[in-house]
Structures are given as structure tokens and as C-alpha cells.
Amino acid sequence: MGLSNSPPQDNEIEVSVFGPGFGECILIHLGNKEWLVVDSCLDPEHKEPYPLIYLNKLGIDPKYSIKYILATHWHDDHIRGLSRIVEVCKDAEFICSSAFGKKEFTTLVDAYSKHTMLQDSGIEEFNRILTYNLLRRPKKSIKLASGDRPLYTSNNSCPDLRYSIYSLSPSDHAMLNAVLDIARLLPEAKTTKIRFPNIQPNNTCVVLLIIIGELALLLGADLEEMGDPNMGWMNIIASQTRPAIKAILYKISHHGSPNADHQDIWTSLLDGYFHAVLTPFTHGNVYLPRETDLRRIKANTGTNETYITSLPRWIRPITRNSTVERTIRESGIKLMRYNNSHGHVRFRLNAKARPYTWHVDLDGQATNIENLI
Questions:
Q1: What is the distance between the alpha carbons of residues 207 and 167, in angstroms, rounded to a whole number?
Q2: What share of the chain is helix, strand, coil (3-state, %, to 5)?
Q3: Cα dihedral sign for 287, 171, 148, 262?
Q4: Cα angle at 122 between 292 and 337, to 5 degrees?
Q5: Are 293 and 253 in contact (CB under 8 A)?
Q6: CB 3.0-4.6 Å disulfide test: which of 13, 201, 207, 272 passes with 224?
Q7: How does residue 190 score in pLDDT terms, banded at 50, 70 and 90?
Q8: Would you say 20 and 343 are in contact if contact means Cβ atoms under 8 Å apart?
């Protein structure tokens, strides 16, 4: 499969979701040649960030078209290549979780940047972003996202293309917990070089609600649900101050894992007929989503309009001759498929047409989950 290289029209909304198996990136055309990048991952073949490669294929210069760059959190699979995008798009606004703005976090970044020997880690990527913003863009402040905060609103004269970008998380309570966790993780002097630890659960990441005209997009990042009404999805669902509009497109949270799901997401935050998309995660012995996750998601969506950017690890598209399979088994060899595939789901619609109708294009291993379960 392949996607056309025709750019969206000025009145077309596009949501491109990239997920090769390890990594996630979302690129959104807000209308009128203005683009938003959410997180980053690298194209396995070219080792460059997906948005830069894709926009160049469309004949669009990322330097001038990307207006906003957002890092939902600092995990490796969401931030690789983001510093490169920041460097290319010098005039873009940079947005990140309010957790990143805490003194404790910047201290942690500095400490681990000196200790870690893994130069491609998420913390190294974020350190490059901070350094670049301070040295090369002194007049560009970093916008910090937190629960129920309006980030940007356009002044477009066309109501159908007038947009607002809101952050629905992290909550104040999640931020307080994060500060305590960060203080605990500060490395001691003269310790062994180590990898920057992930703070679990992912309650300091940024969930976005993007309203364009009369439609809304919900981007779930990696937010988890731990049963605490003061943070996570329970806090978003119960909010009395978030915009009441329901989304017609949902980027499913945390690769479809059970601990990132709340039943009221599907009814309270999403329109009656919506499209959904998720990215898989494969790293070592950890992989998402599982078959049970896809069945749960299918039951919750109620439609056949749910897509995944690449094949989960438990899918085995490669078939071998029975003799070869028997030889492998008898030799005691265990094979594990390394998912290094390209995956891209693209949604487009005309913002001025009613009813809103998504046109969906798939590239690489991207598919409808109906084909997997």
C-alpha cells in the first residue's frame, strides 16, 4: 500500500499517526498550512523523524509549516528525533508537560545527562531540546501544559477552521506525586552510569483536546488509569472545566493497554460515531496491545473504524515450509520477530463539509483491527 503525495487542501484537516512498532508520532494539519507535531519517532529506514520525511514528500517545507511541537512525556518511544524537529523548525512553539518545568526535573535531567552512557535515551533527547531552546531560541519561551489549560487559539476568520488546543492533563495531584518521585530518583554522586528511569505510572504526560470548528480530536498520549480521582483518566472525565465537546477521533492511550482504559472515555469524551487509532509497542519481552486488548477496544468502539499503525508482535505474518518449521522446533531454536516495520494511518476530512466524513489511508503494516481479531 502507498499513500498519495498530494498535500491536504487548506480546508482539510489531516491527522497522521506514525508507529513502526517502537515509537509514536502524530502530525496534524490544523488547516491553512499550519501543522502540529505531537511526539516523535524515527523512520526505521532513513533514521529521520517521520514528520520531516513525510512533509518533504508532500512538497511542504517543515521549517515554515510546523507551528507547534509538543512532547507529551520523555519516554524513549515518544521523543526520539524530537530535538531534530525543534532544530529544523526554529519558529515553532515548543510545548511540554508542566512536569518538565519543575526545578526538580531539570536537576534530574542535568544529573542523568552527566551519568548516563546511553546517548540515544529519551532524557538525552530532551536535554538537547532544552539546550537548543536556551542557546538558539532565547526569545522563544516553552509553554507548559497542565490539566484544563488552553494552550493556543487561532484567530482564523473562517469559523470552520478556527482552532483551540487544550491540555487535559497532568493534574495538580499528579504533578505533586511526580516531584516526590523525581526527588527520589536523583542519582548519588560517583554512582555507576545508568539509564534514566521512567516514572510510573504515566500520569504526568499531556492529553490533548484539539477543537477545530465544530469537531474535536482527543489524543490520549500514554496516560494511565490507576483508580485515583485526582489524576489520570478519572480526573479528566470528572472535570467540570474542560470543554464539553465530544471528539470524533481518538488516539487510544498507551498502546491500548488495560491500565490506560476507563469505560467512561468511550461514552463521556467521544462522539457517538468516532474513529480510533493506536500504535503498538514492542520492546524486549514487553509488547502491546495483546489480543485481549484489541477485543476490548473493539467492543468499546462499537464500529469497525479502529486502526493500528503496525502489526502487534503476536501476529505472525511469516509462514514457513512445514519441514523448515519442524527442523526449527527440533533444534530447540526460539525465534522472535523484530518489528522494525513502517506504519502510518492517515485521516483526512473537509472541515467545511457536513456531515464530517473521514477518509482513511493506510501505509506499511497499518490495518483495521477487524483484520486481526
A1: 6
A2: 30, 25, 45
A3: positive
A4: 40
A5: no
A6: 201
A7: low
A8: yes
Q: Give me the residue label for grid cell 523512520.
A: 43
Residue type, 152: Y
Q: Which single residue is written with the C-alpha cell 460515531?
A: 273
Cell of 327: 527442523
Burial of 119 (0-12, 13-18, 19+ CB in 10 A): exposed
Range list of H helices, the chain: 50-57, 62-65, 76-79, 82-88, 103-115, 122-136, 172-185, 232-238, 263-264, 291-301, 322-330
The pTM assigned to this predicted structure is 0.87
Reported as half-sphere exposure (CB side, CA atoms, 13 A), residue 73 has a value of 27
How crowded is the C-beta side of 12, counted as CA atoms within 13 Å? 13
Q: What percent of the chain has pLDDT over 90?
A: 60
Adjacent-strand bridge partners of 278 = 308
Nearest of 347, 369, 345, 367 to residue 357 by alpha carbon: 347
Angle at 127 between CA 120 and CA 48, to 5 degrees: 45
First to last CA, the chain: 21
CA distance 105 to 216: 32
Where along the chain do its domains lie? Answer: 12-371
| DSSP-derived 3-state class of residue 335 | coil
SS3 state of residue 69: strand
Which residue matches cell numbers 519561551? 141
Per-residue pLDDT, 142 = 84
Q: Between β-strands 12-18 and 34-38, what pairing exists: parallel, antiparallel or unpaired? A: unpaired
Better pLDDT: 58 or 77: 58
CATH number for region 12-371: 3.60.15.10
Q: Average pLDDT over the chain, rounded to whole?
A: 85
